[in-house]
Amino acid sequence: MAVRQDAAMEGKTCDVKFSSSSLVRDYEEHTGRKISEESTANLPSDVRQETIRSLFRNKGALATSANWEGERRIKLTSCLKQASAHFHRIADFIRQGKPVVGCFRVDEEFHTLEPEEIYHCEAETEAETHGQIRFAHYVLFVGYGYDIYDEAYLVFLNSLGTGFGNNGFGRVYFDEIYKDWFYVLKAKAPAVAETGASTSSNIAQGR
């Protein structure tokens, strides 16, 4: 979204698609750990997102586009972490059109969120999940509002496709979201590569 926003500001269209699997590979090579086998019990709670943030800024992630052949690495210009974030602060970023990502705890019921629902994770402890999976899930926040009881919520775009929630979008109460794990992203749209030039190892660095 950050790349497309930058392109739009310059009156350009953007079809850049990032490879999430390349970020996973970079993470595993950097840490020497397999994510699928990684136990976070003895690791800092934010180790994954902080490592990915560093890799995305310093190394970039592989991406494809009709404007170049193969894959090309694109870096984040900045990834500002918001600690102890308040609702109005995050709402301001969203109002300004800045990409904001964050995470909240979910269980299996999250996948069946109805279009009119505002998500709330009922299970407070592992014992209350009754065997269901409970984990932290990252999303892109694109809107905000209040319910009929004046409780604040954020609108998010999920990564589960248009079959989720309301055509791929959902709502979650702000109090459910981890307040120290908001990130505001910025990236520079890559220049179109010259015809015939090799771009597989090029890096588009934000300025």
Automatic annotation (TrEMBL):
GO terms for molecular function: cysteine-type peptidase activity. Residues 81-173 form the Peptidase C1A papain C-terminal domain. GO terms for biological process: proteolysis. SUPFAM superfamilies: Cysteine proteinases. Pfam families: Peptidase_C1. InterPro entries: Papain-like_cys_pep_sf, Peptidase_C1A_C. This is Peptidase C1A papain C-terminal domain-containing protein. It comes from Setaria italica. The lineage of its organism: Eukaryota, Viridiplantae, Streptophyta, Embryophyta, Tracheophyta.
